[in-house]
Structures are given as C-alpha cells and as structure tokens.
Amino acid sequence: MLADESYRDELNKFSRMLWYTKVSLIEQAMKNIDFEIIICLMPYWAAEIRHLGQIFPMEPDLFDLVVVDESSQVNIAEVVPAFYRAKHICIVGDHKQLSLNSTGINFTLNKSYDTLTWNKYKCNNLLYENAKKAKLTVLDASILDFIMKDSRILIPTIMLDEHFRSMPAMADYTNKYYDGKLKIM
User: Fold this and answer.
1) How far apart are CA 170 and CA 45, in angstroms?
2) Following DSSP, what letter does each residue of 88-103 receive, concatenated?
3) pTM exceeds cut of 0.85
4) What is the sign of the dihedral through the CA atoms of 24, 61, 88 and 42?
5) C-beta atoms surrounding 41 within 10 Å
6) 21-28 contacts at long range (C-beta below 8 A, 24 or more positions apart)
7) pLDDT, tens digit (0-9, with 9 covering 90-100), for 93-107
C-alpha cells in the first residue's frame, strides 16, 4: 500500500492533465502518471469512446470490463481501442432500437479505404459489396451488427424486459415490437 502522499501526487497529476487541450501536453502528462494508482483510486469510469485516448494510455488489459451501451449506434472502428484496453467486454444493444445511421455522426473513413481494407482480408472470401449489404463493413456496421452476424461465435444474450425510461403510454406502444414481453414499470 502506498502512502497517502503518493496517491495524492498521482491524483493531482491526473487532475492537471484533464485541463490540457493540446495533444502534446496531454501525451507528456500521461507519461508521468501512474495509471494503476489512478484506477485503484477510481475503479469505475464512464466515458465516451472518442475521449478514451485523451484520458487513458493505449495499454492492454487496463480495464477489467468495458461495457458498450447502445452498441447498435457504435461504429466498429471507434470501439476497437476501447476493446484493446479491456480484459472483458460487454456489448449492450438492441436491433429494434436506433441504428448506426441514426446517430447523425458521419464516420469519416474514406469509402475506397474501407473497400481496399475489406478486399485485402476478405473475411470468409466475402466480396465488399456483399459485406456492405450484410452490414459488416466499417462504414455500415455497428459493433452489435458485427458481433451478431458471426454464427460461429456463441454469444450469451439476455433480454432486459423491464421498461422504465419512458412514459407508460410510450412504453406500451413500443412493447408491440417486443411481442408484449416488456414489463412496464
């Protein structure tokens, strides 16, 4: 166990780093922070995927678990750095909810680059156009689409059947898409 002063020093370094906006200053500050101490002090984190690199170094197994909520709205390329940092992953999503296109975020990957990358590796010898139709390409697939498409992977799934975030009338309306299986809370 480290002395209280060591914890305080690392926390102060981390706190100062969060104020930086210049990438080079953030990178330099990260080199001087003991992230094991920071994660020990604050074991639970919630962040947008795009901000992980500004807060945490690119180290494998940095987190015990990474949970990706609303995964039908998360692009494959965006989530890979988060998965790299995780010992385990949990993907939470619903194909009956909003899709990747609903986010309004235009993922800025060039289509020709996406095509070249796919054709280089040709997963299961699938042509790019067929992969695009099957929603397996980076530009078109959410992480939920991608994970659920591979029938060789046994993925435990659980339906969350309690609906408590909407007004009862709205929850009752959406319940028809779930064959009436949702409990309106």
Assistant:
1) 31
2) EEEE---TTS--GGGG
3) no
4) negative
5) 12
6) 26/54
7) 887 777 776 665 555
